[in-house]
User: What shape does this take?
Amino acid sequence: MIVAKSSTYCATHSHAAVAGALYNHTAAKIIFVRLFRGTRHLHDNTVVGWIWWTALVVLTNGAAFVLATGVPIFAYLVGIAASLFASWYTYGLAGAFWLHDTYALRGGAAALRRRWFLTAVNVLTIAAGTFICIGGLYVSITGIVLAYASGAVGAPFSCGTA
Assistant: This one.
């Protein structure tokens, strides 16, 4: 049991570190490109470019730390964001794009009737996205309310301890 628990934590932490590094790099890169667009520091290895790049990476890591540990309900906020956006980007848009493309490029309502099975699948895909969005919002908001009511929400920078 201990081996399974340790290997699970190892796999989870390594994936979280890689994902965090990717998001941190992306945020720092967006700021870096906006700051140095049109200058030689953007593409050449200059001392000024490297100093700013290092500073931006440190600052974005610091901002991530402050958000993750300073906001006691950050995990719940991530749940709200995921239910609002991930459900639509994975389910809702896929179904909507298929319906739109079939309608606009294949012959209108007649094309949707000819492809009745795929039309039904994509309507159900949009319905699944709607259900996940509404259900996820309900569960996340209810979780916040229950966490505050039970005293489970800790103080800022308490790392989850009440």
Remarks:
- The longest helix spans residues 2-36.
